[in-house]
Amino acid sequence: FPDHFFEHWNGYNVMPPLHDPVPVGALCPQFYGYYTPDDPTDGTNHPNYLSPILLLECCGEEINPDELCMDDKQECASLLFRFHHAGWLHESFAARNILWQQGKPTEWPIQRAFSTKSFRLIDFGRSRKMDSSLTRASEEDTALRLLHLLHHAD
Fold first, then answer.
1. Are 39 and 50 within 8 A, CB to CB?
2. Shortest CA distance to 5 belongs to which of 59, 83, 109?
3. What's the pLDDT band for 40 if we cut at 50, 70, 90?
4. Neighbour tally for 51: CB within 10 Å
5. Which of 4, 48, 59, 119 is 20 to 30 A (C-alpha) from 109?
6. Which residues pair with 23 in a beta bridge?
7. Cα(151)–Cα(15) distance, rounded to whole angstroms?
8. pTM for this one?
9. Which residues are CB-contacts of 95 (< 8 A; sequence separation ≥ 6)?
């Protein structure tokens, strides 16, 4: 993914099709590294079963769309729209793939108690480069429905 997916930003942006400004933070968890053991054996031909380790930022827990305020719902939707704007499809967009925590990951614990929530998009196992605006529109419709952001004409 591009570096800007992991960067912490300050400020707000309007991410179409949304019309309201939303905070712009990192889109996905910070990636700290992938480590493998130097020697997975103990000198014999029998492996010690040391697994590789993928180190990622801990981003909290799964959202519950029904418990989010409108601003938080729009911020969650903006994660997917930013992902699309960069040319990617998630292909597994669901509440379980948006995590939240109180405060920003870079804040000291005492500051987190007084901060707003931060959100991250996760689970990119099915993600792929975008090849069609139809698949983008379908995924965006799913996001708007999940987060109850569709405006119905009465």
1. no
2. 83
3. low
4. 9
5. 4
6. 12
7. 17
8. 0.80
9. 62, 63, 64, 65, 146
